[in-house]
Amino acid sequence: MTNPIHNPSGQNTRTLTTLSEHLPLSAAALKYIAVVTMLIDHIAMALMKAPELQQTRAILRHVGRTAFPIYCFFIAEGFLRSRNRLRYLGLLLLTGVVSQVPYIYALYPGRPLLFRLNVEFTLAIGLAALIIGDFLVEKLFRTKTGELAVLIVVTIGACCLANLLNTSYRWCGVLLIVLFYALRDHPYAAAVAGSILVIRFSQTEIYAIPAFLLLLLYNGTRGRQSKLFFYAFYPVHLAVIALLLR
User: In the chain, N or C terminus with fewer CB closer than 10 Å?
Assistant: First the structure.
């Protein structure tokens, strides 16, 4: 998972919650936290299968639960900030396609190539739901009731698609993105609702709660970061892990 947490527009204005520059974490800091915890999770999942390493493996995989909610948050943030949402969607899909082979070889060796689609596709479906919902509201439904109805219908459809394609985190990932968007003006409610959602999806996701706490410390600034790094990291680190398994 890489570019999902990239903000395509490069703007510094916070959009999901009120700007609070006194808070300690920039977008860059949160992105690096997500990257590091994801890497820890994937190393433990792929390379620590020996029986004597199982306790350590479990601990490291719990640490890895921090990554996904952060990625989902920045999908909603990127949707609100991006100057070109379709380009953003295209980049997510491209990263997903490029990453699929190393994803299977690294994390699900021996499984068919389409056994499970990597998380970039989940994030792309979530972003597509927001884009389609926004388009329908602008063109057809301009009332609050209409907006809510469109969001519900589109979200259900997107969740079903994620389940059908068996993407990583499936319906939960899509719904979490929509939740961050819908509760963009209520960060504490988003943190509570998001925590409940991921735990409902899997009890092990209780270890994702620190991610929601970290997001409450987001100050809305961009911070120093490399766009290329975040785009490339997901497929590259999976390819390296796949090579180590050979």
Answer: C
**Distance, CA of 132 to CA of 177 (rounded, Å):** 14
Burial class (CB in 10 A: 0-12, 13-18, 19+), 86: exposed
10 Å Cβ neighbour count for 215?
A: 23
What's the distance, CA 176 to chain centroid?
A: 9
Residue with tokens 């602008």: 138
Residue-level length of the chain: 246
What does each of the 246 residues of the chain score in pLDDT, given as a tens digit? 433 433 444 443 445 555 566 888 999 999 999 999 999 999 999 999 999 999 999 999 999 999 999 999 999 999 998 999 999 999 999 999 999 999 999 999 999 999 999 999 999 999 999 999 999 988 887 777 888 899 999 999 999 999 999 999 999 999 999 999 999 999 999 999 999 999 999 999 999 999 999 999 999 888 888 878 988 999 999 999 999 998
Instruction: Report domain extents, the chain.
Output: 19-245
Judge whether 225 and 31 are in contact, CB under 8 Å.
Answer: yes
Give the count of beta carbons closer than 10 Å to the beta carbon of residue 241.
Answer: 20
